[in-house]
Design goal:
Largest sheet: 5 strands, parallel
Order of helices and strands: EHEHEHEHEEEH
Helix content: 25-40%
Structural class: alpha/beta
Strand order of the largest sheet: 3-2-4-5-6
Radius of gyration: 16 Å
Number of strands: 7
Shape: globular
CATH architecture: 3-Layer(aba) Sandwich
Length: about 180
């Protein structure tokens, strides 16, 4: 039994994860906007980005945001912004859009560094309809007003439950 203040940990099976990546690949193929690069967002977007890169043949780059090391990703974001100015299109890939903080930060960083908004999009496996922003592509959507589960992706499944619960509670609005 889960305590009332503890999230329900919902483990995503590997097959479901692969199906989610395939769904995004199909959506990308149907979109007239084609990325030149997939940008896996560290940490949760690195594995989906890698799978999507292999599935689509689109080269992959990565940017670390999750470690929140001051200034660490700044040089990379400047380079990505310059790529959008040069006409190259980038697709940020992350595991989930919950509060929207990561997506907003990345999109705004590209613009702050002079990037072209039309040359950046975002894809996520799971998109929260209540997020402060939306993803351009997703495999499936949830509504955090109803769905309070904490989704555990295959690459996270090796972490102790206590760690997963602690991570779920780091940003309260993710499960609000």
């Amino acid at each position: 039994m889960t305590a009332p203040d503890q999230p329900v940990l919902t483990y995503i099976a590997y097959d479901r994860f692969v199906a989610d990546v395939e769904a995004i690949a199909v959506r990308l193929e149907a979109d007239a906007w084609k990325p030149d690069f997939i940008v896996g967002v560290g940490r949760g977007g690195l594995v989906p980005g890698t799978f999507l890169s292999h599935r689509t043949g689109i080269p992959m780059l990565s940017v670390d945001y999750s470690a929140k090391v001051e200034g660490f990703s700044d040089d990379l974001l400047v380079k990505l912004a310059a790529m959008t100015v040069a006409g190259q299109r980038i697709l940020f890939v992350d595991d989930i859009n919950d509060s929207g903080a990561t997506l907003i930060y990345l999109r705004d960083a590209i613009l702050r560094h002079g990037g072209v908004d039309a040359n950046q999009k975002v894809a996520v496996l799971i998109n929260n309809l209540r997020s402060r922003t939306t993803a351009d592509h997703c495999s499936r959507s949830i509504d955090r007003a109803v769905d309070k589960d904490w989704y555990v992706f295959p690459w996270e499944s090796v972490a102790p439950d206590a760690t997963l619960v602690a991570e779920s509670q780091e940003v309260p609005e993710r499960l609000a």
